[in-house]
């Protein structure tokens, strides 16, 4: 039986590293399924590679097998996550692997899905296929942290992001830009890597944001828009309302008049009625659980002070990006201070705080 003490060669590590790179490229883009990378090697040459498909199916192993132009007998498959072994919307990968006579399987970590965990190892052994696990275990476990979190807690992996000026303002009337173009690109990259994006109606009405990914060629990967709006007060002249359809916009609300509900539904917006807490706010964890049931696995929150602070105080952010610009904003008639530096410091350990200079801005990443 294979154990973590199995010795792996430099070539083994090289092939698994490539599989991890393939998986990383699809992170956040594979729907409800984890992103997996797969490399097939024969006679010390890579003969095929595969990734989990966009939206999750087919799986990486199936894609690698399908795209190979050679017989796979006597080949070795390197895969980041234990191959699936049960019938779902597609046949199990173990069946495809056995059918194609792949002789050796090396996967890095066990799946946490109870339908899969540990079973593939036994299936391969029973078919006299050499199977090992644990290669690049540390790196791959780190990569699958969001997936493992999803499966354990049944809520999305939540990333927060907020931008503040040098003098700690998040809003000043008449000023749109707080950070520079480099920070803007990172924001759009975060949108690309998260399947959903949440804001409050207040932020929507103040900023009229687009909430899409505007990196070249990646617009189609823009996240689904999630709006918290207890009484449907969002501006119907906003970009979000005008571009809403049944696939890209969900609003959580408490109550509203029938005319307004009808108007929103005619746009195809998904309306979800949700109760409020005594303080008049939504129960964020209840909303996160609902979003998980709807298929959300990676959620970006670009909220203002109130929403971000409430999620931080409930310890529901897995990570939080604080963008600090290099310019002061004016304290005009309408302005808002960023006021929870202390909350961030108290909720996150200093050893998990990473600071990076990006152009003229300072990016601080707080991680659990």
Topology:
Layout lengths: L9 H16 L11 E6 L2 E7 L8 H7 L9 E6 L11 H7 L4 E6 L9 H8 L3 E4 L3 H7 L1 H9 L3 E8 L4 E4 L8 H13 L2 E5 H7 L16 E5 L10 H4 L6 E5 L4 H9 L3 E4 L10 H10 L4 E4 L3 H9 L5 E6 L10 E3 L3 H7 L5 E6 L2 E7 L1
Parallel strand pairs: 3-4, 4-5, 6-12, 6-13, 8-9, 8-12, 9-10, 10-11
Antiparallel strand pairs: 1-2, 1-3, 7-14, 13-16, 15-16
Relevant terms:
5-stranded mixed sheet, single chain, 16 strands, alpha/beta, 368 residues
Describe this structure in words.
This protein has 368 residues and is α/β, with parallel strands linked by helices. Helices cover 31% and strands 23% of the residues. The protein contains 13 helices and 16 strands. It has helices spanning 10-25, 60-66, 93-99, 119-126, 137-143, 145-153, 181-193, 201-207, 239-242, 258-266, 284-293, 305-313, 341-347, and strands at 37-42, 45-51, 76-81, 104-109, 130-133, 157-164, 169-172, 196-200, 224-228, 249-253, 270-273, 298-301, 319-324, 335-337, 353-358, 361-367. The strands form three sheets. The protein has a nine-stranded mixed sheet. α4 links the parallel β4 (104-109) and β5. The longest helix has 16 residues, at 10-25. The relative contact order is 0.12.
